[in-house]
């Protein structure tokens, strides 16, 4: 087992509620989410809960040279790993996603084209869940998208309450199979 996967498993055992899965997202799940991004248009992307950086590294591969990626992670071990990526387009923030506006100020941007989230919404207290969804809506550009992958549909009513349009998909080739929600302003 690679050091990265071992770190993920170790943190799942220590923090099963916040890590939410015993292994990182599959390439099938990553491709399904990331294929929805218009990479030519995407200038600023935020990722909530990047974990060991599987999505992060793939986003950086696909991003334009002048684009920026902000990742917001609470877990100290994951922050250290993400900070070692060493890409000038990457901004790593060690804080809660509730502070997405602060991260944007740190990055020097006012709006975001895409927010990608794998944080386990079902375990967040309801007021926090609602604040995260509202804050995400407020930071998106007019044609921005909030892309959420989860293991249940529990977040759907919260998304539908705030976003004009929510599309749902299912990715069976992931451990656990995942629900995907694409939200438009």
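Sequence proposed for the structure above (185 residues):
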């Amino acid at each position: 087992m690679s050091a990265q996967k071992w770190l993920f498993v170790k943190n799942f055992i220590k923090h099963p509620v916040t890590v939410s899965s015993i292994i990182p997202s599959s390439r099938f799940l990553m491709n399904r989410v990331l294929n929805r991004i218009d990479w030519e248009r995407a200038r600023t992307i935020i990722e909530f809960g990047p974990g060991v950086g599987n999505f992060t590294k793939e986003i950086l591969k696909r991003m334009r040279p002048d684009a920026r990626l902000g990742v917001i992670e609470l877990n100290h071990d994951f922050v250290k790993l993400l900070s070692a990526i060493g890409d000038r387009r990457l901004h790593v923030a060690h804080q809660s996603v509730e502070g997405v506006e602060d991260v944007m100020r740190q990055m020097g941007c006012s709006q975001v084209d895409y927010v990608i989230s794998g944080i386990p919404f079902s375990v967040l207290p309801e007021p926090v869940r609602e604040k995260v969804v509202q804050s995400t809506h407020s930071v998106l550009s007019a044609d921005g998208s909030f892309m959420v992958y989860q293991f249940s549909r529990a977040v759907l009513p919260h998304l539908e309450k705030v976003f004009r349009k929510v599309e749902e998909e299912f990715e069976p080739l992931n451990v656990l199979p995942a629900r995907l929600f694409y939200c438009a302003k």
